[in-house]
Amino acid sequence: MSAAPRERPLLRAGDLSKHYHVGRSIFPAQRRTVQAVDTVSLDIWPGETLGIVGESGCGKSTLGRCLVRLTDITSGSLEFEGRDITDASQRQLRPLRRQMQMVFQDPSASLNPRRRVGDLLADPFRIHE
User: Fold this and answer.
1) How many distinct structural domains can be found in the chain?
2) Residue 95: CA atoms inside 13 Å, Cβ hemisphere, count?
3) Among 8, 39, 63, 102, which residue carries the largest CB count within 10 Å?
4) What is the pLDDT at residue 109?
5) pLDDT at position 2
6) How far apart are the C-alpha atoms of 16 and 6, rounded to whole Å?
7) What is residue 119's predicted lDDT score, i.e. its pLDDT?
8) Residue 90 lies in a domain
9) Quick check: is 32 in a domain?
């Protein structure tokens, strides 16, 4: 017997971007733009967990903060349970945030340097067999 098809993702991001303007100048052409997150699209389905992995400064935390709308996005769209929350107010977001969670890890404590990377990555699969 096949499982029932999923109707919609719990969280959907479409071409999500967050850009910061840096430098102080009265001339817009002299201001530099940092593209912290640039056109990210993803779906998170009920029961799934998203892990964002990357080197320092690549935009992991910024992406996470944008996904839960702790940081305003520059462009793109964001839906939670089929509802567009791209431009939702902080008051509208408050009850939704109770259903969202971000967990930051201390990089020096997250991986045991005495273990091989392949074994570390395989651990969750062994645990959930």
Assistant:
1) 1
2) 2
3) 63
4) 64
5) 47
6) 23
7) 85
8) yes
9) yes
18: nearest Cα among 36, 32, 31, 2: 36
Owning domain of residue 55: 11-104
- Region of 81 please: left (phi>0), alpha (psi -120 to 50) or beta: left
Dihedral, CA of residue 40, residue 41, residue 44 and residue 50, to nearest 10? -30
- 34: tokens are 């940092």
CATH number, domain with residue 97: 3.40.50.300
Give me 60's structure tokens.
């992991």
| CB-neighbour burial class of residue 13 (10 A; exposed 0-12, middle 13-18, buried 19+) | buried
> Cα(76)–Cα(72) distance, rounded to whole angstroms?
11
114 is a domain residue? no
CA distance 34 to 18: 9
Identity at 31, one-letter amino acid code: R
pLDDT tens for the 129 residues of the chain, in order: 445 456 889 999 999 999 998 877 777 677 788 999 999 999 999 989 888 888 888 999 999 999 999 999 999 999 999 999 999 999 999 998 888 888 777 666 667 778 888 888 888 888 777
